[in-house]
């Protein structure tokens, strides 16, 4: 079927081909007479061609759509101003590719390219694929509105099966390919077996290894044309190392594609429980060329609170894939003897901090960095919390070691009966960091050998913490005894991506901040001791030896002159 033209509901003309998901070569051939400037681009920098196995769908909307979804407790298509006779009775979702699915696609690419790749090489390979995922198909931003619902694919298909298919499996068909200025959209039609005749002209979606999109084993397998909106990176293969790398290149614009999933709802509602809707809702910033209406995060929070008044959970903000693969900056806080340093060692997987050592007594901050899973994790271990202004000021100076600010404060509490000391800890946290600190706080529980399981410890301690911790911090509570628990904590920090701002501080100390740099043996530590007029730094310290592999920074402060 040739390329046709129609006016969409925004009043703009779009090109489309019915009943086919065109591969890139076929699309170029079909559209060569259209004069599309992006399709005709040549000499595009080498880029990866991954295969994503996608298990989530997303649906973006504005405040009016949100109100309708809450009222109906589900999704419907509100109006139809397109010449397509089916668009007004189809519900539109898009594939939502998760960080885990990007990592899995990256591993498949490496395995396809390097036949002798080992499991260890694949696991330790630096992440590169996310650097190419810059098209709106992967964006944390939205063009349609401030609100995004992201549901597991299985939940959507199961709800559709029960509500529209009388319990039978839905039918999937190749609906169309739509060509916009730079975007190509492939649509999969989902309908009830009872409507076979209505949609019989559209081919069934089959497990074709060359198809752009297929459905298999509970996931959509998507093989995109291109995953970048702006091609400013070039893929470099290093077969001698079994590695793929990214190199900056001349920026070029090219087409990008995405997949839409369109269940046939026939002006009815695809129902979901109100709690399900709220749980799967996040806030989105506007993307480039927005076509919906948008609100500020504060207004969106108020809107959501009015629609779900019984829900105390904050409205989370959608974060990008880049943020999910980013560096994480953490600060350990807590009383002396709470297990801060040991917790830092567990997260980094090595003896990075001296448990019960100098950091507790000498007001010394220690900074350590290591790659953990997909993240470059930097942790600052602070002195134990104290009532003295001097110690509190020192703790704040530790925060300055993280120039961009920490993503999270890990408040380390030793399990046991909560005492007045723990209540003092809460008060001191607010005195030092401000009341907004709780938005960035995660509780890490430590304990001596106990017969209780981790789940039992969490359940019991959460009840106690709820009495003293504000902002439902007790719901962000972890016991770190294995890699899975460390992963869960880091994944939580990365997903929230909330950076603590120095503007939130209560204590403000006018100070001078100096950094000593130089070769080993140049006299850096001695110079610092002269400035502070005390033996603050140990000269010729073992930690400074290049052979030690210890990336430890030392911070010392003292009032000098004024």
UniProtKB/TrEMBL annotation:
The GO molecular function terms of this record are: GTP binding
| Matches recorded under Pfam families | AIG1 (PF04548)
Nucleotide-binding among the record's keywords? yes
Q: Which UniProt keywords apply?
A: GTP-binding, Nucleotide-binding
Q: Check the record and name the Gene3D superfamilies matching this protein.
A: P-loop containing nucleotide triphosphate hydrolases (3.40.50.300)
Q: Which PROSITE patterns match?
A: G_AIG1
Per UniProt, residues of the AIG1-type G domain are: 325-535
Specify whether GTP-binding is a keyword of the entry.
yes
Coiled coil ranges (UniProt) are none
Which InterPro entries does this entry report, sorted A to Z?
Answer: G_AIG1 (IPR006703), GIMA/IAN/Toc (IPR045058), P-loop_NTPase (IPR027417)
PANTHER family for this protein: GTPASE IMAP FAMILY MEMBER 7, GTPASE, IMAP FAMILY MEMBER-RELATED
Protein family per UniProt:
Belongs to the TRAFAC class TrmE-Era-EngA-EngB-Septin-like GTPase superfamily. AIG1/Toc34/Toc159-like paraseptin GTPase family. IAN subfamily.
Protein name per its UniProtKB record = Uncharacterized LOC103354644
Its source organism is Stegastes partitus (bicolor damselfish)
The coding gene here is LOC103354644
């Amino acid at each position: 079927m040739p390329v046709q033209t129609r006016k969409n509901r925004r009043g703009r003309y779009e090109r489309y081909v019915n009943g086919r998901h065109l591969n890139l070569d076929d699309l170029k051939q079909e559209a060569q007479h259209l004069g599309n400037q992006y399709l005709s681009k040549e000499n595009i920098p080498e880029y990866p061609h991954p295969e994503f196995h996608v298990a989530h769908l997303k649906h973006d909307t504005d405040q009016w759509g949100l109100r309708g979804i809450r009222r109906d407790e589900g999704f419907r298509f509100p109006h139809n101003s397109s010449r397509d006779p089916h668009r007004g009775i189809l519900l539109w979702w898009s594939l939502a590719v998760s960080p885990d699915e990007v990592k899995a696609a990256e591993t498949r690419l490496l395995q396809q390219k390097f036949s002798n790749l080992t499991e260890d090489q694949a696991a330790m390979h630096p992440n590169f694929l996310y650097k190419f995922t810059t098209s709106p198909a992967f964006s944390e931003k939205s063009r349609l509105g401030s609100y995004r619902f992201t549901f597991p694919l299985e939940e959507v298909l199961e709800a559709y099966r029960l509500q529209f298919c009388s319990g039978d499996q839905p039918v999937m068909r190749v609906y169309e390919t739509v060509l916009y200025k730079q975007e190509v959209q492939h649509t999969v039609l989902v309908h009830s077996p009872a409507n076979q005749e209505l949609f019989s002209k559209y081919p069934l979606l089959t497990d074709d290894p060359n198809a752009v999109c297929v459905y298999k084993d509970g996931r959509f397998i998507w093989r995109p044309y291109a995953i970048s909106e702006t091609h400013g990176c070039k893929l470099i293969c290093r077969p001698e190392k079994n590695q793929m790398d990214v190199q900056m290149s001349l920026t070029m614009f090219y087409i990008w594609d995405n997949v839409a999933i369109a269940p046939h709802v026939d002006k009815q509602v695809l129902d979901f429980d109100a709690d399900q809707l709220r749980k799967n809702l996040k806030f989105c910033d506007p993307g480039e060329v927005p076509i919906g209406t948008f609100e500020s995060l504060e207004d969106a929070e108020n809107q959501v609170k009015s629609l779900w008044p019984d829900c105390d959970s904050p409205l989370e903000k959608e974060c990008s894939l880049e943020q999910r693969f980013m560096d994480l900056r953490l600060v350990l806080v807590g009383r002396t003897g709470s297990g801060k340093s040991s917790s830092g060692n567990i997260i980094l997987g090595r003896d990075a901090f001296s448990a019960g050592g100098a950091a507790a007594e000498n007001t010394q901050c220690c900074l350590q960095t290591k790659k953990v899973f997909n993240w470059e994790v930097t942790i600052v271990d602070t002195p134990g919390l104290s009532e003295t202004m001097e110690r509190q000021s020192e703790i704040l100076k530790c925060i300055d070691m993280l120039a961009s600010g920490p993503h999270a404060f890990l408040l380390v509490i030793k399990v046991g009966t909560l005492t007045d000391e723990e209540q003092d800890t809460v008060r001191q946290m607010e005195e030092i960091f401000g009341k907004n600190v709780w938005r960035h706080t995660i509780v890490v529980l430590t304990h001596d050998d106990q017969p209780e399981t981790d789940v039992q410890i969490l359940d019991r301690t959460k009840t106690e913490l709820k009495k003293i911790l504000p902002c439902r911090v007790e719901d962000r509570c972890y016991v770190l005894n294995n890699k899975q628990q460390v992963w869960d904590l880091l994944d939580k920090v990365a997903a929230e991506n909330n950076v603590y701002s120095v503007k939130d501080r209560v204590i403000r100390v006018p100070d001078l901040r100096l950094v000593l740099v130089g070769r080993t043996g140049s006299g850096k530590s001695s110079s610092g001791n002269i400035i502070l007029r005390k033996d603050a730094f140990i000269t010729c310290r073992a930690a400074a030896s290049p052979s030690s592999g210890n990336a430890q920074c030392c911070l010392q402060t003292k009032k000098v002159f004024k």
